[in-house]
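Bug #2210: token dump truncated for Sorbitol dehydrogenase family protein?
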Amino acid sequence: MHYSRRRALKLIGLVTLTSAAGQFLALPRLKAAQSSASPAALNDFLQVSRLLTQQDELSTAVAQALLLALDHTHPGFVSALMQLKNLLQRQPALLQQDRLTFSTADAESEKLAQAILGGWYNGVVGKGKGARYVTYVNTLAAHVVSDKLVPPSFSYGRIGSWAQQP
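Reproduced locally. Full output below:
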């Protein structure tokens, strides 16, 4: 138990430093060699991500990290990604909806699309004990509020100053 906590603290420190620098460094246990993801899969992932997020400028470094995390947390991710890509190309109207919803027959593709969007906007892939923290500063959610909060959600002033009324 003590070993796990120490390892978790080291990982949190690494991710914090990486996020603060605004760049991605490969997490110790997530090596590209352990992934079935190829350069072609990265291109497909970026293409699908651009369609889902409606953003043309997505970080390749964050995309690589998300791809690795999704590949490790979602069995058969690369083939499911291809199904999602084909579905979005066949039915572009799906992306014109106010809320992304797929037919019952495409429920697995909908779950995958939600996981991809969650990764880009929240920086976390998976849930519970299987969740993988990928980024914080480089999330799309942070980008949306970057005109007001830079860096996102950091407190300005002395500790606790936010609690006092102006």
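Output looks complete on our side. Residues 101 and 107 are 9 Å apart (CA to CA). Marking as cannot-reproduce; reopen if the truncation happens again.
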